[in-house]
């Protein structure tokens, strides 16, 4: 039961990141055709203007929520822990401002 919940949460976490990244990229590159000389219709422009700020805010909210709950970094999966902990700052002679409690 516990293993199923952990796997389900990891799948939901990855799905949340995939959706947030997809939405953010759609907002950023949504008007690509319009900037290349192919004007979009008035309806599409109105839909983009109505939903782009909400979609961008939702994507940023996911990033904030995931990072605040401890599931935003690479170390959640245990692959590249020193990169996420700021330990590489010592290589460059910088003081790390990341402290773990």
In short:
Helix 1 (2-29) runs antiparallel to helix 3 (42-68). The protein is built from 4 helices and no strands. It is an all-alpha fold and 101 residues long.
Which SSEs are present, and which pair or pack?
Blueprint: H1 2-29, H2 32-35, H3 42-68, H4 81-85
Helix pairs in contact: 1-3
Structural write-up:
- This protein is mainly α and 101 residues long.
- The protein has a domain at 2-69.
- Helix content is 63%, strand content 0%.
- The protein is built from four helices and no strands.
- The protein has helices at 2-29, 32-35, 42-68, 81-85.
- α1 (2-29) runs antiparallel to α3 (42-68).
- The chain is elongated and about 50 Å long.
- The relative contact order is 0.09.
- Mean pLDDT is 75; it is low at 79-84.
Instruction: Please state roughly what percent of the residues sit in beta strands, choosing from under 5%, 5-15%, 15-25%, 25-35%, 35-45% or over 45%.
Output: under 5%
Give the overall form. Answer: elongated
Structural classification:
mainly alpha
H/E series, N to C? HHHH
For the sheet with most strands, the description reads: none
Residues in helix, %: 55-70%
Distance from N terminus to C terminus (CA atoms, Å) equals 30 Å
Give the C-alpha Rg: 19 Å
Low-confidence stretches: 79-84
**Total of DSSP H or I helical runs spanning 4+ residues:** 4
Average pLDDT rating: 75
Keywords: Membrane, Transmembrane, Transmembrane helix
InterPro entries: O2_lipid_transport_reg
Protein name: Nose resistant to fluoxetine protein 6
